Structures are given as structure tokens and as C-alpha cells.
Amino acid sequence: MGVSTPPIIPAATSSEVSWRIQGAVYGIGLFSTSIFHIGAVIVPLYAATMTPSPLMFGLVFSAAHFLPLFLSIHTGAMMDRLGARRVMLVCTSIGAIVPLFYPAFPWIWALVFFQMFFGLAESMGWLGAQTMIGQFMHGKTIYAGRMSFIIRIGHLICAPLAGISWDLAGPWGGFALMSLWGLGSVACALLLPKQPIDPDAVAPEGRRAKMRALLPNASDYLTAFRLLGVPSVVVIVMLGALMHVGNAVQGSFYVAWLSDMGLTGTAIGLLGPAAAIGAALFSLVTARLMRYVGGLWIALASLWAGILLICATPLFGSYFLLQMAMFLRSGANGLAQPLVITLVLRGAGRENQGKAIGLRGTANRVASILAPLAMGLIAEAVGLEWSFYVIGALVSVMMIGIAIYLWRNPQVTRAGED
């Protein structure tokens, strides 16, 4: 099968995108990302009650990325063919149901199993929100910046709510909050306008062709991986994957370290507002900063700073310093996030936007799987504190390599200029 024609969206200028569509897309982004922040508090605390080894603890968080690793490109291709709305309705429904199973089966291997399906739903929700920036909003940086700002509203309140729900009601309270939050994504998906299906997906074979469209297709993967022939796409995919190394550390061993420091679930959750405020404020200046600095350089510098800040966690001995570090780390990520989305969309072309976001999602999952496992192995060898430093050093080596490449290839950096 050749490259499919994307769902037909009426041509419009950026000013003609209705606020109902914008609100629905931003809402999916808000709920699907902030549910991650609820899980980043609840799941580590829940896993810690089972006293796993560091490697097993890392496996719990790697498991959330197993299915997205193999299905991100396929899901992106389905969004290209069937429209993001249909795919979102399925994925967000899974995300609303699965959390209720966690406390009902309090065993470590059950936790690993449920993490796989919850991770798929959460990851595909965010993948869909990014794809819809292209399908409904013309891939404009201003819309990606708005979404990056708005999703911080959820981040602002979700981590504190998660900590409070854990302290007051234990696992059932925490996972019920995750399920309720997942329903918000479902509601937003229902608000989106229906999209036409690519005619090639339904004719001439009819129902059999519809079923085939739901199955992974080798040509979709080949088309997606061909995008790696675009240098700017390769660089931004690599940078996005390294950002997820920091996110994986924050959503796993970071919480374990804070718990060992004696912080309660509520205190850990209250680090969330500092993160949300930092990310929201910084994300609003991305487009303006691009007038003076290339987008790829902005992304590299800010993401590198964010990773160094999370890997320096053991050096921050006070709650105030932890708050400041989280503010700056999330601000750095917020500055880069609109670029990570829009530069991939531009490099891919309109007909492959879902596949491009799926490719980026696949790379992110590789990083998210390997980082907790690697950190678990390092922690068993040299201790938890030194595992933070080792991860930071390894990422820095890769960032320096990317910086040298960009310096020697200025034509690539110009692809990241607005």
C-alpha cells in the first residue's frame, strides 16, 4: 500500500481555527499528559509498598513504554488514515478504565502488566494531541505553544491532588483519581468534529479493508523510518528521546529518592505546581526567542539543562532547593516542547504527520524503557545517589555529540529557524 491520503480538513488560515476545536485538542493534551503526573506520584509509592529490587522497580516504569514502542508508528498511521478523533476515543477510553485494576491486584507482576496498557493509553493520547496540531491547526508553533501552556494547568493541580489522595485514601484513592482524569480525555475527544476516512481504507473491499486498516502495516513503518533521512527530523527525534530520559528518571527513582528523604506523598505532589508554573511561563516565549536563535539550538540547550537538573537531585538537600530545581527543569522542558512538536511536523510534510509523531513516540519509548532499567542496574552496582550522576554524564556526552554535529552543519540548524 502506498502513502495514504490524510483525512480531509477544510483549508483555513490560523485565525479560522475555532475555539471549540482548539479547546478539545488542548483538553486531550491536558488530560493525557497530566494523568502521567498523577501516575508519577501514585505508581512509585504503590510499587514501593511491594519492596521490589531496584531492577524490578525500574521494570515497573519501563513496562509502561513496551506497547507504545511497537505501536506508536502504527497508531500515527491510523490517525493519518482514519482521523485522530476515532483513534483517540479508543485510546482515551482504555486510559479511563485500566487504573481501576491496579489496587484490585496488589502484586508486582500485575503492576507491570497493567502499566503496559495504561502506558499505551497515556502515550497515544499525547501523540494524538500533537498530531491534531497538524491535522486541525496547520502545524503552527503558536498553537503548539498554547497547548504547551494549557497542559500545565493540569500539571499544576494533579501532582498535589495525587499526593493528597494517596495520603487520605491510599491506592484506591490515587487510582480512582487517575480514572476520573482519564474520563476528561474521553469527553474532549467527543467534542472534536468527525473526520472523513481515507477512501483507500474502505474500498473496494469494504469491511475487510477496514479491518486491515486497524492492523500494523509494514509500509507505514518503512515510510516513517524514511523520515530519518531528513537531518532536522533525526536531530529533533534524538533530542526528544533524551528529554524522555529525564522524564523517566523523574517518574521513577526521583520519587523513590524523595520518599527516602522522608517526604510525604503530599509534599512530593506539591512539587508539581512549581513545575507547572515554570513550564507554562517558559513555553510562551518559545516563538519569540526563535526570532534570535535557531529552534534546534534552543531545544538542545534547554533540554540538556532540564536533564542536568533532575540528575543533580541528590545535591539538593532542602525542600526549597528541590522546588527551585523543579521550576527551572520544567521551564527548560516547556521552552523546548513546542519546538519538538512543530519541527518534526514541518520536516515530515502534511501527508505523514501522524507517522512522524509516531516515529518520535517510538524513539521516546526506547529511551523511556532503557532509562529506568539502566538506572536500576547502575543503582544496584554503585548506589542510588551515584546512579543519578552517571545518567547525567551519559546524556551529556550524547548532547555534546549533537552540538558538535549542529555546529559543523549549519544548514541543518537553519531548518529549525522560524
Write the layout of secondary structure elements.
Layout: H1 19-48, H2 54-63, H3 66-82, H4 84-97, H5 108-135, H6 141-191, H7 207-213, H8 218-226, H9 231-250, H10 253-260, H11 265-269, H12 272-283, H13 286-289, H14 295-311, H15 319-348, H16 353-382, H17 384-408, H18 410-414
Helix pairs in contact: 1-5, 1-6, 1-10, 2-5, 2-16, 3-4, 3-5, 3-16, 4-5, 4-6, 5-16, 6-12, 6-15, 8-16, 9-14, 9-15, 9-16, 9-17, 12-15, 14-15, 14-17, 15-16, 16-17
CATH architecture: Up-down Bundle
The separation of the N and C termini measures 34 Å
Oligomer: single chain
CATH superfamily grouping: MFS general substrate transporter like domains
Question: Whole-number average pLDDT?
Answer: 78
Fraction in beta strands: under 5%
Q: How many E-type strands?
A: 0
Domains (count): 1
| Sheet having the most strands | none
